[in-house]
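Convert to structure. Protein one:
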Amino acid sequence: MSPSANSNGGVAPTEYPPPVSSPEEFVKRELDPEDERIEVGVVIVGGGPAGLACANRLLQLLAEEPEVMERLGEVPVAVIEKGKACGAHNLSGAMMRPSGLKELFPDLDPSEWPTHGTVEKDSVYWMLSPGAALPLKPTPPPFRNHGNHMVSVAELSRWLAQKAEEAGAYILTETSAQQLLVADGVVRGIRSGDKGRGKEGEELSNFEPGSDVTAKATVLAEGTWGHLTGAAIKAFQLAEGREPQVWSLGVKEVWEVPNPLDRVIHTLGWPLRYGPKWHEFGGSWIYPMGSDRVSLGFVLGLDYTDATVSAHDVLQQFKTSKLVRRILEGGRRLSWGAKAIPEGGYWAMPKLSAPGMVLCGDGAGMVNVPILKGIHYAIHAGILAAETIFEQLKADSTDLSAYERRVEDSVIAKDLYETRNMRQPTSKGFFIGAGLIANAMVVTKGRFPGGRWANHPDAQAPVSIGNKKDAYPKPDGKYTFDKLSSVYVSGNATRDDAPNHIRVQRTVPREIAEAWRWMCPAGVYEIPEDAPESGPVEVIVNYTNCVQCGAITAKGGRLTPPEGGDGPLYTIT
């Protein structure tokens, strides 16, 4: 038995860590000379709901005190977004609770929001087989969506970006944030990434070096597996005393359909397998998006043990069911995408501030697993960050620790604390885990079973080559699709000669290579046809396919930002 194999024959991805020189690789501690820096008042990394809510709220406050605004210089608020546009890398279900937008824009009527309205009917099914769906009645409390808004988070981000620009924000799209600037123990901004490098890192004819973007306060709102968020957590030991974060992977499609869907649908069960042996936990959603579109997707926890589990292929399999086929019949797929989701809950949230810096949104683990919600928490977090930063700007202070107290006193921490042990029982299998979640924990708001249940990193789950793949349908190009055609409809336009932004060991046991190959929804990882059936194999990394979902970081690799503008261009996800 190899040192990395366990008694069941599995191999843990943690035994093959990514080639990262040191935690300091992504931290820059010497600033460029002043005349070479770009100076802004506040820099916000991430053009999603958290970062843009922060920009909008901060500019609202600055408009009331112009002398503070003036002190921030020509660029009071800058938003750094690596995608081609705000929302380009944003993907979610999503049924959004309205509280965040109501607080951010109290004078706007919800009819002016970029949503597809509300739905008052919910259905939850336990899928027994492709042809049998057992309705769960009454609808379990976590799945009740009355009053929530159907949104495309990509559309929402573009709308929030427009509002922020109208208020005076400078939004720098196609700009990656590669390093965190830290001087004298204080975060001083970010270093933007180079542009115009070739495959081997060489400077091309259009090369543009990155710049130090210095600021009086830095907001990291990068979303799932945030690059600088990870660097900050290590540099300032923000996860000390916390549980490790755990993740799921969601794969989503948007369809145009001939018949309107009148309800929100969630499912549990098939095509996932029961029993703690498999660690297969997740479920689906089907949401209406107006009268002629539906959003559907499947979410899978990333601590499964069969290397051939594939969220993309499970979604294709799910679509062969009688329930889904009836909804999609006569329709056509418009869009596809994938994203990792933090599921560690309250105990896995890191410390949320360091001198000169705060963390917001999904990057800080602000997702409520049982109710499948995170967007309104991201908006609330952005608002709280802005209010804290505004107070400290007036005091000329870099101490932003008041933000943590604000979060703790807010709906974010209140809700997450009530569901603080929700994800952990799933390792005990569907019936025990789901029973605890649906009954004792929900009814008692987390008080029973109480205490603090431990999380275990997804990459510590040993994987072996099983037979999950045998049930996946062959793509027909009409209802079921392969990965490469899906990447095409994501709008991904990464140039072929871009540098590789994915860190993985290239020679790994076959089990690890298979796990990466099946896990990746974009077909990034391949195994050569002549590779041995067991033992070490070479992994081919097709990094230009990458849609920035972040799952590889949960399963033994390390995703870093590509060149600004690379990756998907989501529009309705």
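Protein two, convert as well:
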Amino acid sequence: MKILTTFLFNRFKTSNPKTKIDSLNVQSSWRVAWGKVDSILEDVTWQDNRLAIIAPEGRAITISPSQQFVVIGDLWLSNKVELLPKLGLEPSNFSGNDSEIIALAWEKWEFECLHLLRGMFAFTVWDRDKQILYCIRDCSGARTLYYTTNKDICWISPQLRTLAPYRSGDIDLVALRDYLATAFVPGERTLWQDIKEVGPGTVIQFPEAKITSYWQLQENTQAADKPLAWHGEKLRYLLDKVVREYLPPQQPVGVFLSGGLDSSSITALAAKFHNEQVHSYSIYFGDKSPNELEFSSLVANHCQTKHHILEISFEDMWERLPETMAYLDNPIGDPLTVPNLLLARLAKADVEVILNGEGGDPCFGGPKNQPMLINSLYGAVVNQQDALQAYLNSFKKCAAFLPQLLKPEVWNAVETQPSVFSAELNNVDANYLNRLMAINIKFKGANHILTKVNNLTQAEGLLGLSPLFDKRIVELSMTIPPIHKLSVAQEKAVLKQAVADLLPEAIINRPKSGMMVPVQIGFRKYWQQEARNLLLNRQAEISPYLDKNLISKWLEFRGDTWRRYGIKLWLLVSLEVWLQVNK
């Protein structure tokens, strides 16, 4: 059964467009202070010598049985059932939360317990005896953790916005450059100069601020002589196991369903293994815009899910952008941000857990890698600068325009600053496709895809899960020979092989198209004056950094042969709105 839902908001007005965004109230998350905590004037929830914890009402602070370790964090462990017997506990009798499992595991194994954890987590552990603070993030980067670089007190929180009172207003210009090139901020930088992000699979240890990787993604090609079917069977076995673990017991589950291979695969596996109702959710932007409803509806009918279709108007896209940016940490210039929030809002009426198909392209060779492979094949990539520029241009954002878009003094400050992508991109010991995939997993996955989906589902009280970004799936992807992931003839061949029996042939063999958000039409017909007043205003937050002549040209769509200005304008509008709501 298909359920069509339309969100109705205030009538869209273009006669008196706003240039400034109203302030938004977003609840702060927990935060930990390390250093001279006696000077803190806030209401401290728990304090011990050089450590203080400030936690919202209801947030659990867990102390280990020996009283030595104190744990607080955002945690979801997929392997609780496996961990509890190792801790001497019977799963059927355990009624504690995941934080208590971490406290018990740390007391038994300390740092080594990190190798046993699977799931999504960002947490801190305070060792009261040794006076050491550990800040830990999961391997895929599904949860986030940020820290300030203040000398007297270092603040740590899973939410960038929570650290606003402890930072300056200075922009990190390299992070700004990278955002304009890719539509997200990659690596450990944030858009604020004095706040950094803990990397995926990383521990930061205070007082030394020592950074240690407890897990690293590495190429590990195996069984190169085995056929595609063999690797597909191996992947399918693991997919079955992971999706089973992710399904919530005795309650319905939802799936974001675009109709592409990745989300369709997760939908089919959920429907196969779940004993409760499976809800699927799709979006479209009205009858005059391209959509994938034909394919998402085909999958929903095939898998017998309760299917919901959300129509999103141009009014919705513009009016809900400030709220969306307030829920994000760093800015993300992806047009799917607002749809992700609205779809989560719709799903919250039916489910508490929502699955998605994110991770298929980074792990199994999506078609966006093909231009880079062709570039490499024909020898255009001959040195570091060429390889890096080709990679940045493949995002089709603003990389090629940075010398004109950034003001001269800003461009001079960042032009020669190194890129976080260079080391992986130029790792000659790894296959070229695997290098591209590793970059996408480490950076686009952790700093864009996962943080976008998880922040916006959490904003609506949902647990958003990405099975294809599971640590075990990611590790397996790096064992599969590249020829079985992406070749001239077929992309994601091994994933298609793995799920061929679960989905209609039309889904298995359809070309990748990507979710089509009509921002080009949006700026031409609906948002142009709004965007002009927002971006070209003298008081705009981007004014000190960007040259508005090029932006003005984009707003007039002069020379837009490839119809790319809309996506660039959305990236800029998202940045301006993010700066305003986070100021």
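The chain has three domains: 31-213, 228-365+432-508, 518-583. Residues 432-458 form the longest helix (27 residues).
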